[in-house]
């Protein structure tokens, strides 16, 4: 997918079907063509739901499921591997085309994904932000870790109370870092903005995605 095809896809989405889900396929197609990422498995996990078996648990973070996961493909011997948390090298959180990435809900969700998965790409199709959090610096209390928040089920009053607790925790974390080190967790190491339809920005995006793939191998 070159720049012109990508730009055309965004225009078609905006004109014909401006919903978040329509971006997933376009973004996955782009990721799979990147040289640094083509050795990984790139999966749309946006439709994941809670099950009795718990097979989806590796994808579940403090703020639920991200949209796309970048995982190991094989064990090095051409044998496909099942998904485990350690095999998830990065996740992508997608928002509807052009939607702000800076609402409180988006910041909460980004923070939860960062604390759960470490590497996050945050995008609305035009704006791309790359984050890489050293999880070893963040020791979460048990009540906020993956095992606890995994107990949230459905839309019951009990679940609503647990989501409120998680959101309060994330809001406190955002405020704490905002006071002491502005944009600490939420300062991306790279940003790309395609709103002005510039070939140079698309080229930068491809380079950043390639660099991410190579970084994940180290």
Number of structurally distinct domains: 1
Mean pLDDT: 85
Rg from alpha-carbon coordinates? 17 Å
SS-based class: alpha+beta
Strands side by side in the biggest sheet: 1-2-3-4-5-6
Q: What's the total helix number?
A: 6
How would you sum up the global shape?
globular
Total strand segments:
6
**What percentage of the residues does DSSP assign to strands (E)?**
5-15%
Topology order in helix (H) and strand (E) letters? HHEEEHEEHHEH
Largest sheet: 6 strands, mixed
Low-confidence runs of at least 5 consecutive residues: none
Distance between the termini: 27 Å
Task: Name the helicity range.
Answer: 25-40%
What can you see in these coordinates?
By secondary structure, the protein is α+β, with helices and mostly antiparallel strands. The chain has one domain (3-216). It contains six helices and six strands; from the N terminus they run ααβββαββααβα. It has helices at residues 3-16, 21-33, 104-117, 146-149, 157-180, 199-216, and strands at residues 40-44, 68-72, 88-94, 119-123, 127-132, 190-193. Helix 1 (3-16) runs antiparallel to helix 2 (21-33) and helix 3 packs across helix 5. It is globular. It starts with a helix and ends with a helix.
């Amino acid at each position: 997918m070159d720049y012109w095809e990508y730009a055309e896809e965004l225009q078609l989405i905006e004109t014909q079907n401006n919903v978040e889900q329509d971006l997933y396929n376009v973004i996955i197609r782009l990721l799979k063509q990147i040289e640094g990422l083509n050795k990984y498995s790139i999966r749309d996990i946006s439709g994941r739901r809670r099950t009795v078996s718990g097979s989806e648990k590796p994808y579940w973070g403090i703020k639920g499921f991200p949209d796309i996961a970048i995982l190991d493909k094989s064990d090095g011997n051409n044998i496909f591997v099942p998904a485990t948390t350690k095999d998830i090298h990065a996740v992508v959180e997608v928002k509807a085309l052009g939607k702000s990435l800076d609402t409180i809900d988006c910041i909460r969700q980004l923070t939860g994904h960062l604390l759960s998965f470490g590497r996050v790409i945050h995008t609305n199709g035009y704006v791309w932000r790359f984050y890489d959090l050293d999880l070893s610096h963040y020791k979460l209390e048990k009540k906020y870790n993956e095992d606890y928040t995994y107990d949230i089920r459905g839309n019951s009053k009990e679940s609503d109370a647990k989501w409120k607790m998680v959101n309060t925790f994330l809001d406190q974390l955002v405020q704490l870092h905002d006071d002491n080190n502005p944009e600490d967790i939420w300062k991306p190491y790279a940003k790309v903005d395609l709103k002005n339809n510039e070939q140079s920005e698309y080229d930068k995006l491809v380079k950043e995605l390639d660099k991410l793939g190579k970084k994940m191998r180290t």
